[in-house]
Design brief:
Strand order of the largest sheet: 14-13-12-15-16-11-17
Strand content: 15-25%
Number of strands: 17
Number of helices: 13
CATH superfamily of the largest domain: P-loop containing nucleotide triphosphate hydrolases
Mean pLDDT: 80
CATH topology of the largest domain: Rossmann fold
Number of domains: 2
Distance between the termini: 46 Å
Low-confidence stretches: 225-260, 442-455
Radius of gyration: 24 Å
């Protein structure tokens, strides 16, 4: 691993960063887009900062396309590393025009490989060149930041969640520009994100991280354990329907445009038949309730007989703790079960009660075949999303197309792992808390500024 090879990016970073331990090894092609994916706090940004030279690890090695940037005997400082770094916030210079921002830091020597006019064309910036940053939209600001990074003539482009602060419509605006950069420039890109929908549209390779370690690395289609959500990997046997949050079902009383919904507030755990998503989701939600979070909705657990066969199901109203013990026994050897009509009615009441109470998080156990067919808790799920509340559900891989059709493609896809779910919620709830605190007046009561999650 500690070797420099042309056409490869090899890196090893080990050590302590405060209370966090980083132990990451990478060996990647120096071409295409490599996405680094994992829950918040897993070390994605720490790896990027180490590659950029912003963070120095005593036990570190970094070589890009045969050129050593760090080993036991040398450390190339950040200003000598040909890297373009794009952060979540554009951080443009307010006293410079768009043109001035683009040219800031660009080499003065002739013969640049990435030309100014080419970048302006790639990112659609021609009409913006004379504007001041304060006259730009969020998407326009981020396109200028990307252009500035490209014009620094990098050998590697690092993008640290560049779309995380943008709404769904603005993300959709920027992604085609990123695809053009990928397709027309021979430039390796590291793309950090916790949104698998972005990754599967934009990336060629995938690095999975968890708790400071690389737990998987390889070409995107072969590495990801479940089908992804975009045009490259679309399949499934649930019937697609045009009824969605954007075009509500017959029982959904609140017509909305799904573009108005913050996509970070809608999360789907993508799972396979062998995953115990019921137990995972129930434990996560009930732990939040026990810790004082205001969580509503429904989770479920399968009931087994003495031989381990599934004989029914119980559902739990998270707000009241009451069991919805309406089970539908399926007989000996049954591997699945579902609530009957009475149980579904009780579950619908539980979700509706949670929406009316404006809880911090609505949990609805599944979007599966019933919901895909327009039945089950589909309408209650649509109402929760329409209300703008954070929503967490689980989607089987065979119903992924139906879920995308229902939501219009908004939302965040989560691996069926405790760390991924907890990381999503920690990140989202802290964002909501910061946004709420920013809206409160300076003389607000201390109780309103307490460290709690809000909806």
């Amino acid at each position: 691993m500690r070797m420099a090879h042309p056409g490869r990016i090899n890196a090893v970073f080990r050590g302590r960063l405060g209370n966090f331990t980083l132990d990451a090894e990478l060996s990647l092609p120096a071409t295409g887009v490599t996405a680094i994916f994992g829950p918040s706090g897993c070390g994605k940004t720490s790896v990027a900062r180490c590659i950029a030279g912003l963070q120095r690890m005593a036990d570190g090695f970094c070589a890009v396309d045969g050129e050593i940037w760090q080993d036991r005997h040398s450390f190339r400082p950040v200003h000598r590393r040909p890297i373009g770094y794009v952060f979540q916030e554009a951080s443009l210079f307010p006293h410079l025009s768009v043109r001035g921002n683009l040219l800031f830091g660009a080499p003065k020597s002739a013969g640049a490989q990435i030309a100014f006019d080419e970048v302006v064309d790639l990112l659609g910036l021609a009409a913006l060149l004379d504007r001041s940053p304060h006259r730009l939209s969020g998407g326009e600001r981020q396109r200028v930041a990307i252009g500035r990074a490209l014009l620094s003539q990098p050998k590697l482009l690092l993008m640290d969640e560049p779309l995380a602060a943008l709404d769904h419509a603005t993300k959709s605006e920027i992604l085609p520009f990123l695809e053009r950069v990928r397709d027309r420039l021979s430039l390796p890109v590291f793309y950090i994100s916790h949104d698998m929908t972005e990754i599967e549209r934009f990336a060629d390779h995938l690095v999975l991280m968890e708790q400071g370690r690389v737990v998987g690395s390889g070409p995107l289609p072969s590495l990801h354990p479940i089908p992804l959500t975009g045009s490259r990997h679309r399949h499934g046997d649930c019937p697609p329907r045009r009824n969605s949050v954007g075009n509500p079902t017959r029982m959904t009383p609140m017509p909305i445009d799904f573009h108005d919904i913050d996509p970070n507030r809608v999360a789907a755990i993508l799972y396979r038949p062998q995953d115990d998503v019921d137990g995972l989701l129930a434990e996560f939600a009930q732990n939040l309730v026990r810790s004082g979070e205001r969580v509503g909705g429904v989770v479920q657990r399968n009931i087994k007989d003495g031989s381990g066969c599934h004989i029914g199901m119980e559902a739990i109203d998270l707000m009241t703790g009451a069991e919805i013990s309406i089970c539908q026994p399926l007989g000996s050897g049954a591997m699945a079960c579902k609530l009957d009509a009475a149980g579904l009615a009780e579950a619908a009441v539980a979700v509706t009660r949670a929406i009316a109470a404006d809880v911090d998080l609505v949990v609805i156990n599944k979007f599966s075949k019933q919901e895909a067919a327009g039945e089950g808790l589909r309408d209650e799920l649509a109402n929760a999303i329409a209300a703008g509340l954070p929503v967490l559900t689980a989607v089987p891989e065979k119903c992924l197309d139906a879920w995308n059709d229902f939501t219009g493609g908004i939302g965040t896809s989560l691996l069926c792992e405790r760390g991924a779910i907890e990381g999503w919620w920690q990140d989202l709830s802290s964002r909501i808390k910061r946004a709420r605190a920013a809206r409160l007046p300076a003389d607000a009561p201390a109780a309103l500024l307490a460290d709690h999650h809000v909806g």
